[in-house]
Amino acid sequence: MSFSALSLRTRLIAAFLFATILPLAASIWIATSLLDRSLGYATTSELDRLSRTLEVTARQFYQRERDALRQEALADRVTASRYDAADTSQWPDSISSFWASREPELFSLSGPGGDHLDFMRRDTGGVSVYRRDLGGVHMEELSTEFRRIRELVSSLESRDLRRGFTLTLVLLVVIVWLLSLAPVIFMAHRISRPIRQLTAGLTDFAGGDWDRRLDRPRDDEVGRAITAFNHMAE
Question: 120 has which bridge partners?
Fold first, then answer.
């Protein structure tokens, strides 16, 4: 069946569908793009900014503790653990690695979760290790949390929250589109009904029913066509 063979009502509905499907698709694409940007800004950017701020604060704290421990060590205000060069076989691995590196001094973390800061200094007789308690701050655990937050930020785009918002938005757009389709169908029915009556009257009149007359529904183009038919029949 060709398009021209369809009823006027069907053609009006089809025209509405073809005319609205492209704006509907464009609206969904634009809305989802804006939603993606807004969610990305509200979640990813804020969380990333917060994690970076905390990381900078942790680094400043670590640097301050390093400077304080070094000053106390140079001023002999803290007791050092001594490792003599004559007994290197009894050294811990960290001390042996520092001695093999030939570095003059080195800072490292120790204790559960890195809650202590060690300052190692070497001389010709061996290694001196100065230790400072970080007051319950676990630096290694903080570093692990920062890495976990970065992984979380990178995976936010695939989370169900964004998918749920997108599906909800698409559903709302489809509902609005269906609501807009209802009055068009009603208008198409109002337009096509008197035309069908006129077509039926002409068919009956051409078949020999010369007494056939039609009621004029309203004063528009279709109504004037019905009036013309009635005049022709008279």
Answer: 106, 129
DSSP-based three-state secondary structure for 83: strand
Query: Per-residue pLDDT tens for 41-64?
Result: 555 666 777 778 888 888 899 999
State which H helix or E strand residue 107 sits in.
strand 105-110
Least confident of 118-122, 144-148, 219-223: 219-223
Residue 134: strand, helix, or coil: coil
Q: What is the Cα 19 distance to its own chain's centre?
A: 30
pLDDT at 2 over 60: no
Look up residue 5 and give its two tokens: 């063979």
Q: Give residue limits of the domains in the chain.
A: 3-158
Nearest residue to 230 via CA among 210, 219, 35: 210
- How many residues does this entry show for the chain? 234
- List phi, psi (to 5°) of 186: -65, -45
d(CA 110, CA 208): 109
Comparing C-alpha atoms, which of 157, 96, 160, 151 is closest to residue 126? 96
